[in-house]
Amino acid sequence: MSEIQPQITTMLQNSMVKGRVVHAYLFEGEKGTGKKEMGMLLAKALLCLDPTESRLPCEQCRNCKRIENGNHPDVHVLEPEGLSIKKEQIKNLQEEFSKKSVEANFKIYLIDKADKMSVQAANSLLKFLEEPPKDTAAILLTEQMQRLLPTILSRCQILSFKPLSRIHLQKRLMDQGVNEQNSSIISHLTHNYVEGMALSSEEWFAQAQKIVVRLYEVIKTDSLKALLYLQQDWFLHFKERDQLDRGLDLLFLIYKDLLYIQLDKRNLVVFQNQMQELESHALHLSQKRLADYMGAILEAKRKLLSNTNPQLLMEQLVLNLQEGSSFV
Predict the structure, then answer these.
(1) Which of 64, 148, 173, 194 could form a disulfide with 32 if both were Cys (CB 3.0 to 4.6 A apart)?
(2) Which CATH number fits domain 202-320: 1.25.40.530, 1.10.260.40, 3.90.1150.10, 1.20.272.10?
(3) pTM above 0.70, yes or no
C-alpha cells in the first residue's frame, strides 16, 4: 500500500512520529486509488502493538490481524445502507464512541462514500467533528468531495489520492494473479484498480482482445476480407459505442507496439504474445506511415463521440489502415 500512494504514506508516518495525528482526515480521489486500504493502514498503524521505527504497522500482531479481518472493537466502518448513510448510523456511532475504549487507547471510525450521507446524517457528523471525543480519529472517504458540506471539509485534513501509475497498477494486478500480458494491456486502458480487476475476469474483454488482434491480422492482408470480418465478427461483439471505443483502444495499442519495436523498446510492447508477427510487420512500415495509422485510430475515436455511424466509421478506418492507402 505504501508503494501505491507514497507521498500520503510518508505524510501520515511523519504525523504519527511527531505525535500530530489530527482528529479527522478526508481521503478524496477517484475510485480504485487505494483510499480505503490507506484508511485501514492508518487504523492499523495507530493501534499496532509492534509498529516499525517508521510507524508502519507490523501486520502480525493481534490488533493488525483483527483490523484486517474487520473485527476489532475499536475500529468502526460505516457504509451506505441502501442509497445513503442515514442519521441513525451516525447517531449509533456517536453512542458507541461515548463509551470507553474496549481494548486500545484509541478509537477510529471510517466512513466510506461519505458523500452519500443524508443531510441529517451530515449535520449529525458535523457536531461530532466540532466536539470530537478524546483519542479518536475519523477517516472519511469520498470520490465526490464537492458533495460534502463545506463545514465538514473545513474540519478535516484533506488528502488527495492520485490515480495509480501504470507500473503500480500492473504490479498490483499481477499480485492478484493476473498474467503479465493482461495486466500490461489493462494498465494501459485504465488507472483504476477496481475496473482493472473487473476487466481481468471479464470474458467479454478476453474475447475482445482476440477479435482486435484478428482484425489487425486481416487488415494487413486483404481489405475486402477485413470489411467482411467487421460484419461477421467485429460488430457482433462491439455492439455499444463504449465497447467500440474500448476496441479502438486495443487496436491503437497494437500499432503503438509496432512503434516500440521500431524504436527498439521491445520491453514496452504489451501484446508480447504476438511479438514475432509484430516484428515482421514493423520491418515493412515507415514511422511516417505508422504515425498515420495511429492518427487514423485516434480520429475514429474522436468521431465516435459525435453522431458518426459506427459501421461507416469502422469501414473507413479499415480502408485507412491498409498499407499504401492515402489518408483523408
Answers:
(1) 194
(2) 1.20.272.10
(3) no
pLDDT, one tens digit for every residue, the chain (328 residues):
456 688 899 999 999 988 899 999 999 998 888 899 999 999 999 999 999 888 889 999 999 999 999 999 999 999 999 999 999 999 999 888 887 766 667 899 999 999 999 999 999 999 889 888 888 899 999 999 999 999 999 999 999 998 888 888 999 899 999 999 999 999 999 988 889 999 999 999 999 999 999 999 999 888 789 999 999 999 999 999 999 999 999 999 999 999 999 999 999 999 999 999 999 999 888 999 999 999 999 999 999 988 789 999 999 999 999 865 433 3
Which CATH superfamily hosts domain 6-163?
A: P-loop containing nucleotide triphosphate hydrolases (3.40.50.300)
**CB count, 10 Å around CB of 11?**
12
- Sequence-distant (6+) residues with CB within 8 A of 16 are 45, 46, 55
**CB contact at 8 A, 31 and 144:** no
108: which residues sit within 8 A by CB, 6+ positions away? Answer: 42, 43, 46, 47, 74, 75, 76, 136, 137, 138, 139
The full set of domain ranges for the chain reads 6-163, 202-320
CA 256/CA 250 separation, integer angstroms: 10
Domains 6-163 and 202-320 share a fold: no
- Grid cell, residue 85, equals 448513510
